[in-house]
Request: fold
Amino acid sequence: MLDDRITLTVNGRRVTRPVGANYRLLDFLREELMLTGSKEGCGAGECGTCSVFVDGRLVKSCLMPTLKAEGASIQTVEGLAPRGELTPVQRAFHRTGASQCGYCIPGMVMAATAALRANPEAGIEEIKERLGGNICRCTGYTKIFEAVEIARDVIAGRLPAAALEAEETAGSFIGASVRRIDAPAKVSGALRYAGDTVMPGMLHMAVLRSPHAHARILGIDTAAAAALPGVECVVTAADVPGKDGFGVFVHDQPVMARDRVRYVGEAVAAVAADSVETARHAAALIAVGYAPLPGVFDPAEAMRPGAPVLHDYAPDNLVKHIPIRKGDVAAGFAAADLVIEETFATQQVEHAYLEPEAGLAWVDHDGVVTVLSPSQNITHHRHMLADILALPVNKVRFIMSPVGGGFGGKEDMIYQGMLALAAIRTGRPVRLVFTREESVTSTAKRHPARISYRMGLTREGRITAVSFEMLSDGGAYGMSTEGVMRKAAILSLGPYAIPNLQIDTRGVYTNNTPSGAFRTFGAMQSQFATESMMDIAAGRLGLDPFEIRRRNMMRAGDTTHTGQRLDSCSIGTVLAVAEEFSRWEQGPPAVRGAGRGDTGGPDTRARCTLGARFRSGPAADRQEVA
Amino acid sequence: MLSYDAYRRPRTLTEALDAVAALPPGARVIAGGTDILPWAREGRAGDVHVPVLVDVSGVAEFRGWTRAGGRVRLGAATVFQDFLTDAGLRRLFPAMPFCAIWFADDQIREQATLAGNLVNASPAADGTPPMLLHGAEVEMARRVDGAVVHRTVRLADFVTGPGRTALRPGELVTAVIADALPGYGGAFEKVGQRRSLVISRICVAAAVRVSADGRRFDDVRLAIGGVGPVPERLGEAEARLAGKPVTAATIAAAASGTAARVASRSKVEYRRAVVEGFVAAAIADALADAGHPLAVGTTGEKADA
Reply:
């Protein structure tokens, strides 16, 4: 065991502290000094949420062993401005709204500060490049870059300090750039996410996950893990007192695998110990006996008779089938001058929010089991957890911590149950912070879909009939599949008025990573197919792609194919704006080619070149006179 | 997660050599440390416990660089960022600013050492091809009967295979010694899964010097990485250009055939398709960097990453 102390200067204060054997500078700042403005988004130097200055150079503190910083002077986001004040860079981020979930923002502020310290006159290309080591997932880079340019110009005196203040709203907020109320906490690093939260006596959790896609669990031997010094408890499905099952629509997923694992990465057991290192070590000591079962990894195969069955309640592996029928499809195709048939496939997508899943659970003085986590659905989680723990609902409390990006990926209660069980068992607060790898391998993804599409049109481009069949891989558990299938079906044909149609969406169990909620909730997959069909049809009929959409679009007063009357309809406006702003060259798709006028104009990106900081200088400055 | 029982930070070369003289099995030497921490994670090595980490980044003798005649001695602590921020290094290593800018972001470049990149000996190491242009040698030191013994081997001989080098137990890289190439234009072409912060699939480095009127190739140096077990110079293509007129045709002729160098076992067709384009693009970019760009329209678009 490492028994070292380190002395260094942090934000102007000299500190001497013991160092954990696994502590990176990031861990030291967060766990030892409670400077949680530096975040861990990836642990591998990719994302920049952990950026700090070490002796004036910005580095990624997740890539630095703490002892490397012996004697160094560290500046973190907390040290940029005196308490209660903000630097011009931070104020500019506040001004432009460059702080959505806020998780990447302290790192972005640090990178922006470093960029302007390195070159106070940096142009936009150089700013982008100097922020290149920092990733954002929800703010979007435009507001961030805008903020850095404003800060640069204010610092240089080209813009008045008022440029950092709120925009005048003149009585109405509509159309005005309104500052976010929560932005100061985000740009200063003060906001605490679940993984930043500590409680006295807090334990740390590590989860043992399945290496098998489908296997029977023969036994789980936790003795060696439980005996490890520092381990307070090991929990498995056997510890669940109530009705073990959660899910958004069907409660088919146990808190931890019960008798069977159904995907690689499924939680099998969890350890609570006095350090993350001990908990991880103990989890590795748990011996699980598995008898591998045949798996099914393709949704079409999963629907065939004789395919491995994942859940007894669904012998056909079908999670949900949503059919929609309208008009006379056969007659519609008979009336068509052109029938197009295509198939489309989309892939799994990871949400990749910068805040990995994290939570903290404890049992309060009244015996109320409390879970703090970035849950996107706390009321539902509360009710499910009460059933799982066999407690009245008023003995379960959920607190929603700030969500460092969710995009639907934090709707499922995949870890809160384990935390609650461990808190009950130990009587102590227990925290779990997913690693990035754990977040990628074990949490829900966007549904991969296969779509068979048939569309009939008249010569004039009016759609006469559509047959739309979508098969989605729901993965091992139901999660949001039912809702996603519903939304995919409802929104499948886009904003188009179609007299005759048949729509079928099906979500199917497989032994793949579960699919769940993800922005658009299924509409992205289905509308990708519909919009592609519109372009294909425009090409085949010699019509302008905007025009064919106008000929088919719904209008105010129309009724959608699920029976909703539309009092207003904005598709016409959307098309007009898109056409104007894209500098569209009218005509069928085939007429565009070398002469297209929409590249190289304003708002378009130039070809990738790196090296803005030295490309702008004259080449001659690098020539040496011999 | 990487954990260790002891962390040593030698301050002098002799302290460093003493620290590595009798390391227990599993001990590791680090400089910037930017490779080892991501390595000790799920999906790669998993949780790793090592008995000793020896951090040589603070060794006084490893700092800075000196020039002696036509050669430059780069201390082992030289980081990639130095090739962007140090005007002297930029002048003498024309391809390195381009290599550095593609290698990683500013923050990783501040930590990652050139010597560490060479010692890791990845077939796709970005630092190796540009250093081959400079006829680099790797200087090493070890303790022999109490005395500090130095030796130097050519970089081409230092990297013996994927992850393998000529470094002996108890030996440390102390410097990289390389040709100074003032007056050359430099270029570095790289393609990976995205545009930076990513391991190269293929990279090509070039340093080009032309005659005073810019019409003839005087000296062309080309090196390639990611297409075989070790990066290497493209001697044949270099020879085909020396003394030839600076035209798209001579460049195309020299680039043709370089695809044959692809010896990787994966993505062979892709790599072959990219290599010739990269060689031609690297030469064109190096000419532009030297202040003698090819006339517009005489070369194809540079392959996009």
